[in-house]
Design goal:
Jelly Rolls, 2 domains, eleven-stranded antiparallel sheet, 1 helix, 27 strands, 7% helix
Length: 403
């Protein structure tokens, strides 16, 4: 081959390599890293080669251990609402869960689970009914339990305009295991309720028996003493009222104090006269800083009306009737919409993972465990950011498959 031809080939190869390098740089720049609004710093880079919306694994009826298409009204699901102004000022504000069933969009056939994008939410979770992980299938030991679902998400303003590189709108999927940390402890000779202090995102509930207010005379008040050592604005306490025969709960008080001093609190329950209710205290630590020897202590819980006491619990032997229950969560993965308007349904399973895992066993779940599948949605309340209004997120056909 002539020398001039060799030079031309070498020159063309050099140009080709330069173009490849520039293209690769552009792709990497476009997939810039981002951190979530929560305090866990994670990458938000999606490698397109890892994402697939096709189901490559055949799922048999014998292996499906949990499935939900929400056509039965979401029976057995429960939600726990979020709080706004997370860790900042003004003070943290609780609000009801924003999860709901929707028929605006559905994968099959007409109903899905929906969370809008027009509220500011940092801790809004919804829990599936509990289900058991089998120990074996067809005589073989179960070695994995994998999550899949359909999602239709349209959040074009997923980035945080005030904090470049941070996510503003995204969702997380968790597995929950029962972990009840409330108990009765001795504090200087006085028996009191103590929440414990789980290290993970945790929901620790302490609930009264049913209290009959059908014949109560206003004013009706809830009085109690509490002491709290918490990570201020992050690991919070909450007082709820659950009405017999009604879904959900009403938050009537918030506990957020790191002084370590006993405080008195009084809550007006007159709005519930004529109903039968339960009072529920919740301690809600997140998955970051844990205060050593911290938590929430409660004592002298009394509900009374104008005529006298209707319920009392001082945690002493024979009087301690509050019921404890807790679920602690471990995150499987998180994901977000990349901002394409007019979102379509996408199938998500282990083949679409770009962080975390879709296998419950990777997080310590074992055969025989009772678990909850849990969704969390984090949003900043800004659903435009100069783009088309967000439609929110729709979830459908959730499934856990044992292998």
């Amino acid at each position: 081959m002539e020398e001039s031809s060799m030079k031309r080939i070498a020159f063309m190869l050099s140009i080709f390599m330069l173009m490849c390098t520039v293209s690769l740089y552009a792709v990497n720049a476009d997939n810039a890293t981002a951190n979530m609004q929560s305090r866990e710093k994670v990458t938000a880079v999606k490698d397109a080669t890892q994402i697939s919306d096709g189901n490559v694994a055949k799922i048999t009826a014998q292996s499906v251990i949990f499935e939900e298409d929400f056509e039965d009204g979401g029976e057995g699901w429960f939600s726990d609402g979020g709080y706004a102004n997370l860790g900042g000022e003004p003070e943290v504000v609780f609000f009801p869960p924003a999860w709901s069933l929707s028929q605006d969009k559905a994968f099959s056939p007409v109903t899905s689970l929906f969370h809008g994008d027009d509220v500011e939410s940092s801790r809004d979770f919804t829990f599936s009914p509990a289900f058991d992980i089998p120990t074996e299938l067809d005589g073989d030991p179960v070695v994995a339990a994998k999550v899949s679902f359909q999602i239709n998400i349209d959040n074009p303003g997923y980035g945080d305009p005030n904090n470049p590189g941070y996510l503003a709108d995204y969702y997380m999927v968790y597995v929950g295991l029962e972990e009840t940390t409330w108990g009765v402890v001795d504090v200087e000779g006085d028996m009191v309720y103590y929440s414990g202090y789980p290290e993970e995102n945790s929901f620790q509930y302490l609930t009264s028996p049913k209290i009959d207010l059908t014949a109560a005379t206003a004013p009706v008040t809830l009085d109690f003493k509490y002491l709290m050592l918490n990570e201020l604005h992050w690991d919070l306490g909450r007082v709820d009222v659950l009405v017999d025969g009604e879904a959900g709960y009403t938050t009537v008080g918030m506990l957020d104090d790191d002084t370590g001093a006993w405080l008195d609190m009084s809550v007006d329950l007159s709005a519930f006269v004529g109903k039968t209710v339960q009072v529920r205290f919740a301690f809600l630590p997140d998955d970051a800083t844990k205060i050593e020897d911290g938590g929430l202590w409660l004592n002298d819980i009394v509900v009374s009306d104008a005529a006298g006491e209707l319920f009392a619990d001082d945690a002493e032997t024979g009087n301690a009737v509050m019921e404890a229950f807790g679920v602690s969560l471990t995150r499987l993965f998180y994901d977000y919409d990349e901002g394409d308007a007019g979102a379509e349904w996408h199938f998500k399973d282990e083949n679409s993972a770009w962080n975390g895992t879709y296998d419950l066993f990777d997080l310590g779940v074992q055969p025989g465990d009772k678990v909850w599948l849990v969704l969390r949605y984090i949003i900043d309340g800004d659903n435009t950011q100069g783009e088309e209004a967000s439609a929110g997120a729709f979830f459908d056909d959730l499934m856990v498959t044992a292998i």
